[in-house]
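User: Fold this, then the next.

Assistant: Folding the first:
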Amino acid sequence: TKAMIIDVASRYSNGEVEVIEDNASSRFTIRFVGTLGIPCNMEDLKLTIEEIKPAHLAVTYEYVYNTWNDVGALTWNQAAAYTWEGIRTVNINADNN
């Protein structure tokens, strides 16, 4: 069920997820809205989703990253502490409060 997929994906990602159903196309998308970047352990999550989802449905995974507007709150000195990947996935609000 949709609730089971949300529960499993949330547990693997340690964050909130959304499941967007596209019944007309026999597919659904798992969007990781509570985690920036690709969550750890995605390979195991994908295997688990394949086991619990109906076989006729395709699944897509969607990840969230910071935008330029998000990182615009950082000063150059703050930004210098991160790699490019770090800038894309740093929780700006948590690091600057």
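Now the next one, as you asked:
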Amino acid sequence: LLLAPTAASARPASKGVYAEAGLGGAATLGKAADWTQPGPALALRLGYDLFSWFSVGAAASASTHEATVPAPPSGEYVQLYRARADARLTARVQRIALYAEGGAGAAMLSSNVLEKVGVQEPGQRFALAFAGGGGLEYQLQNRHYAFGLGAEYFLAPGFDALAGVEVRLFLRYTYGGAR
């Protein structure tokens, strides 16, 4: 009886400093959607779990979009870079976690191709940016790793209210002990 197999208990998720890397897509909304096509996106996030349910961090995203402005020019692409400080609230039930996050920072457009249609002012490359979103995370057997699906809404009011959504799959690694 002492050697009989027993059900393994779920391992708690790690808590501490973490890094997250994600791949997905981004699309602009509103007026900017007329001048840019959806494109691939890359997201990175570094943070620290202050509590099992609250963390702070820094996030950065980059996305590439085909510019569909009237010719000339034609066949142009524009990259949208965003960086921010943010906070995340998490609710965990065993291996599944739901989270909501939000923050503020800056956005940068890589070129002036959107000046022609009024999305950016002449010579303007930077604007204040805000983002908010949420997602779902699945804790692996190794408590340091988790996979997830996240989505966020972003707004850069200085770029004629440039707004959009980003959806990504991500991998998270936490350098720390149990929550």
